[in-house]
Amino acid sequence: MSRVTLSRFLIEQTRSHNTPADLRFLIEVVARACKRISYEVSKGALGGVLGSMDTENVQGEVQKKLDVLSNEILLEANEWGGHLAGMASEEMDKAYQIPGKYPKGAYLLVFDPLDGSSNIDVNVSVGTIFSVLRCPDECFSQNDTLGEEAFLQPGTRQVAAGYAIYGPQTMLMLTLGDGVKGFTLDREMGSFVLTHDSIQVPSSTAEFAINMSNQRHWEAPVQRYVDELLSGEEGPLGKNYNMRWIASMVADVHRILTRGGLFMYPRDARDPSKPGKLRLMYEANPMSFIIEQAGGAATDGRQRILDIEPTSLHQRVAVFLGSREEVERVTGYHQA
Ligand code: AHM
Ligand code: MG
């Protein structure tokens, strides 16, 4: 049986869906960078890459060595090809400017280079999340600097999104707005091979994911909903639910894409300036695009995540995503 590599899939997309050649190139470059990150992650203690730096990122989080390395890998891979107007990342305060010696292109790339990095040192799955937007016209200032405003587009404007998961297998999950495809890395051949065609999130589920240790900080609708989940067959929902929490969004979302489920990171009362923990531009938006393309749903409890008009590059948002019926139920509780 002939195998469909990522390259072949993208070339066929160009023929059948008019995917522009520079977008195809962009995805290939991101995938190549993810292979390199996968390799670095897999070396672990042997590569001297575990542990933390002495630095904090813009969110005030201590950076792991692999956070910084993964960020550098993505920047270096993408800056020279002429397909991007700029980049932004969880690990960088401001937009990354394409060096003047390279041509600029039509797209913006936004990423979380290594999501779930609290799991790196304990050898649990982590991943890279990315989102692709078109750069608006006239987004460069007079001194040829790309401003943050260029990136502040709602998730509905994403032209592509995906994540790589570095787990027992390395996989790349991708949407170009026409369903979700999954590619598994063939390490001997060095290529991503299409293994999961047409992924669908089941509309109902009996599995949920939430960090229960934050329970006392949640808002009333989430308290009510999780109480109902925990009360099982005897409760108003009339069935028993199972819980999983990996603390790697990529791994939790990957499970949901594979067998359904509900992922929640609600806003809570700890810090009013932080509506939720997860970041809109490079976590919630790409994951919501993927989940919707697989038939699931994603809201912040009040509205569809992809409709949110961003106001800053690193803004946070509450996230409820996964199987449609449960996302609709918990969203409905916020409106009651
Ligand atoms: P990170 O981008 O700094 O790794 O943080 C995001 C991660 C998500 O992958 C995960 O869902 C969440 O943070 C886990 O949070 P908690 O530590 O509260 O369990
Ligand atoms: Mg993250």
3D structure, described in words:
The protein has 336 residues and is an alpha+beta fold. The protein has two domains: 6-196, Fructose-1,6-Bisphosphatase, Chain A, domain 1; 207-335, D-Maltodextrin-Binding Protein, domain 2. The protein is 29% helix and 24% strand. The protein contains seven helices and 17 strands. The protein has helices at residues 6-17, 21-43, 65-78, 220-230, 249-259, 280-293, 324-335, and strands at residues 52-56, 62-64, 84-89, 96-97, 107-115, 126-134, 160-166, 170-175, 180-186, 191-196, 207-209, 242-243, 262-265, 278-279, 297-299, 316-317, 319-322. The strands form four sheets. An eight-stranded mixed β-sheet has the order 4-3-5-6-7-8-9-10, with helices on both faces. The radius of gyration is 20 Å and the shape is globular. The model has no long low-confidence stretch (mean pLDDT 94). The structure holds 2,5-anhydro-1,6-di-O-phosphono-D-mannitol and magnesium ion. Magnesium ion binds next to strand 5.
